[in-house]
Fold:
Amino acid sequence: MAVGEEGSIARAAEKVNVSSPSISTAIAGIEDEFGLQLFARKHAHGLKLSQAGRTFMEQARAVLAEAEKLNVMAREMTGRVQGPLNVGCLLTFAQVVMPHLRRGFCTRFPDVQFHQLERDQEGVLQGLRDAELDMALSYALSIPDDIVFEPLFDLPPYVLMAADHPLAGRESVWLAELQGHPMVLLDLPHSSAYFLSLFAGAGITPMITERTRDMEVMRSLVANGFGYAIINIRYANTFSADGKPLRHVAIRDALPPLKLGLLTSADARTTVTVRAFADHCREHMTPQTHPGLKT
Structure:
């Protein structure tokens, strides 16, 4: 499975922590056992699945999934919080939310193999549908019917500005006052549509001069005077990555907040480990208790 996914014995060895010679021997043994050539060997280009290999791999994936159900069943019967847990997190706040949350959970439940995956909203939703993710932390942005969203708290939008922006000394501004000032747009799926909808609701067209999909790049662009940004996550750290100060200014318009919460697939079977992580989030995931966030 690892070689088929990675296309390389060396990369597969790193992924599953097994030596390359052992993997080569295992592949040869499987091919001899079933009388099939599963991989085409291409010098300097790694290994490529043959047609038989692709069919074999689909069934192998199903066999491993069924085997994992035995582990899940055992954990449920014993009530122990253990085993693998794959948690997704939205890119825009993963760096200030997930490490602290994960550290507390793993300290409490050391038998859990915790894996975090940072995605945009579309990637989070697809990961839940594909059962790649057991649970995710994200916003209530375009949540489809096959995904269950449990809100944790609201995050109102605010304006992020450079310290020397003409409006940076204000406690609050109207959206109309931003007209004519350049804007840096965090251009992620669903997120950008939300930000632009705030202006559309006020009958305003923002002057977008910069777009980026990276939160830290956006903060640095703002801090260096390339424009203001609208954002909902307010970092406790008020400096950009390159050390320049940032200002947070409230918005006076009555705007809809983003709801941050837990996402799960409606079809997924909730295990004791997933339930334990959800309880941990409810207890520790608030602007008042999380050190990386500010209200």
